[in-house]
Structure formats: structure tokens, C-alpha cells
Amino acid sequence: MLKSLTIAAGLALAAFGSARADDTLVVGATAIPHAEILEFVKPILAKDGLDLDIRVFTDYIQPNAQLVSGELDANYYQYRPFLNDYNKQRGTDLTPIVPVHIEPFVAYSTKIDAVEKLADGATVAIPNDPVNGGRGLLLLQKLGLIKVAGKPELTSPEDPLPTIKDVVENPKNLKIVELESALLPRALGEVDLAALNGNYVFEAKLDISKSLLIDRGQDGYNVWSEYLVTRPETKGDARVAKLAKALNSEETRKFIEERYKGQVVAAF
Predict the structure, then answer these.
(1) Residues 164, 230: one domain?
(2) What mean pLDDT do residues 164-169 have?
(3) Vertex 261, ends 268 and 184: CA angle to 5°?
(4) 117 with 161, same domain?
């Protein structure tokens, strides 16, 4: 009798855990603006019976790694060129669902207020991952500091990005160093200029208006739109569909407009 009760209790707990899982979606994100936007839609989803469990990350590696391992159901922090590179390098098949927003990518300095003041031999820092590093080189090219081989602007997520080896002109003999994206704001006192992702600009509370250049990509279709991403097997999951709908709602568009005052714009 006791054994039967124990088995029954175990089945009841398993059923409860399954029901809870069906009502919860675990999503990884970087803090600003991604997690803030998720926090905005969380009460909207709660009214629709979905509990959004938001896990905040400070780096660009763990949100995808934990999505692959199953610790996350989805993530929201990356654009498609970064996702494509991750899938290619690791043999994964993480899937973009909907674009949500576009944020700035900036050239920033605490030592100069105009690019013309950058000295010969100055040290310039860019992100150390292939995609954001390549975007950093394109940003330096837009500033007229270097010239790289290949296209001056991405028009497709599949377009190749330049590496430091692709720099064909460097008239100021700049020393280009690669650092982890999250560390770049803290390195501003040690370098003369840095290429920064918008989310880290916001987290570091830097005055974005003091950027030497603000790049938001091209008008219309934008390869730098930030996506909600999941695994192939959960692409059709009703919970993911609810989140995608909420993120692409007019309420979310209005929140982005009012919260970020044009520094972050809706991509839908």
C-alpha cells in the first residue's frame, strides 16, 4: 500500500512539473535593451497564461550555449550574422524567429572629441568575435581611418565580414586590438578609440551623443536587427509563438519608442 502511494505521489509530482513547464518559457538575454523589453512583455504574457523566466547574461557566448544545452527555451540578444557564424562554427542549427529591434553600434572615445584628432599610431579596440569585430572594422572604414577588402556594408546575413588581415590601407598606422565586447567600455581609459555594441554602451551609462560615429545599418531591411532565437524543435512551440507575438506587438513598438527615444528602434 505504501509503495503504491509513493508511486502515485511521484506521478502526481511529475504531472505537476510537466504542467508548470508547459506554462513557463525560459529566455536568455543581455540586460539593455533586451531584458528590459522582455520585462515589459512579461505581464502581457502572464495574462495569456505564460510565465516568462528571464535569465540575464553579460556575455555573448552563454546565451547560445545554454540554448543548445536546453537550459534555455529561447534567447534574445543577437543579430543574424552573429547567429549564422555561431551555427557554422559549432555545427548547430539555432533558428531565428522574429526581429525585434535595432540598436546602435558606435565609435567611442574618452580622449578625443573628433576623429581628426586621432594621433598616428593610436590604439583602437574592436570586439574579438568575428562578426562584431568585422563590423568594428567597417565602422573604422566609415570613419575614414582604414580601408578593408570586400563590401563596405552588409546587405545579407550571409555576407562575409572583414578580419584584421583584410585591412589594405591604414594611413595612421593604427594599432588595432581585439577585446571581448563586454570589456570594451572599461578599456576606454586605456585605448584611444573603441567600437562598441549598443547594449554595452547603455549598460555602461555612456553618453551616446558623444560618440564619434553612430551606425544603425541601412534603412529598410536591416541585417543588424536583433532576433528572438530558439532551437529547431521548439520553433513551432506555442509558448515561443506567444512571446514572438508579444515582442512584435504595437504595445512593444510604443514601449521601445518611448523608452529609448530613437536610440533603439523597432525592427518590425
Answers:
(1) no
(2) 98
(3) 90
(4) yes
Residue 1: the pLDDT is: 40
Comparing CA positions, the residue from 124, 142, 147, 166 lying closest to residue 217 is: 142
Check whether residue 98 and residue 227 sit in a common domain.
yes
236 and 178 together in one domain: no
Residue 16: its pLDDT value, please?
A: 34
Please write the tens of the pLDDT for every residue from 226-265.
Answer: 999 999 999 999 999 999 999 999 999 999 999 999 999 9
Last residue of a domain, one of 180, 200, 215: 215
Grid coordinates representing 104? 546602435
Cβ pair 23, 15 in contact under 8 A: no
SS3 125: strand
Q: What is the pLDDT of residue 25?
A: 99
The number of distinct structural domains making up the chain is 2
The DSSP call for residue 118 is P
Say whether both 35 and 167 belong to one domain.
no
Q: Is the dihedral of CA 214, 216, 218, 223 positive or negative?
A: positive
- Distance of alpha carbon 265 from alpha carbon 268, whole angstroms: 9
Pick the closest to residue 60 from 135, 162, 151, 154 (CA basis). 135
In this prediction the pTM is 0.88
Read off the C-alpha cell for 51. 510565465
Show the domain range for 251: 2-102+222-266
Residue with cell 533586451: 34
Same domain, 226 and 95: yes
Cis peptide before 157 (omega within 30 of 0): no
Distance spanning both ends of the chain, measured CA to CA: 59
Is the same domain home to 96 and 10? yes
> Based on the domain organization, do 189 and 207 belong to the same domain?
yes
